Amino acid sequence: MNGQNKKDVKPGIEVYIVLKKDQRTGNKTKGIVKDLLTNSAFHPHGIKVRLTDGQIGRVCEIIEK
After folding, report:
1. What share of the chain in percent tops pLDDT 90?
2. DSSP-derived secondary structure letter, 3
3. CA dihedral defined by 23, 50, 35, 17, rounded to 10 degrees?
4. How many other C-beta atoms are found inside a 10 Å radius of the C-beta of residue 52?
5. Which end of the chain is more exposed for a tag (fewer CB within 10 A), N or C?
6. Nearest-angstrom CA–CA distance, 50 and 58
7. Three-class DSSP category at 44
8. In this predicted structure, what is the pLDDT of residue 1?
9. Dist CA 36 CA 29 (whole Å)
10. For the chain, what is the radius of gyration of the CA atoms?
């Protein structure tokens, strides 16, 4: 899953996000979702989240378990 739909992203799931500073390079950061920061149900660049370690970015991939 690509993380563009809010219904797919929930606190506690493991995801890859792209941090603001990494948008040009596309480097991914792995972490656990703590909070959802996007209000809309869909976002073309990915739902913005805060990870448990405090980093904020847009979900680019949801890790299926």
Report:
1. 95
2. S
3. 40
4. 12
5. C
6. 9
7. coil
8. 83
9. 16
10. 10
What's the number of CA atoms in the CB half-sphere (13 Å) around residue 1? 18
- Per-residue pLDDT reduced to its tens digit, 6-45: 999 999 999 999 999 999 999 999 999 999 999 999 999 9
Residues in the chain, overall count? 65
How far, in Å, CA of 53 to CA of 61, rounded? 18
Instruction: Work out the pLDDT band at 65, boundaries 50, 70, 90.
Output: confident
Q: What phi-psi label fits residue 56: left (phi over 0), alpha (psi between -120 and 50 degrees) or beta?
A: beta
Alpha carbon separation from 65 to 1, 4, 15, 18, 62 (Å, rounded)? 12, 19, 11, 20, 9
For residues 47 and 43, give the distance between their C-alpha atoms in angstroms, rounded to a whole number.
Answer: 6
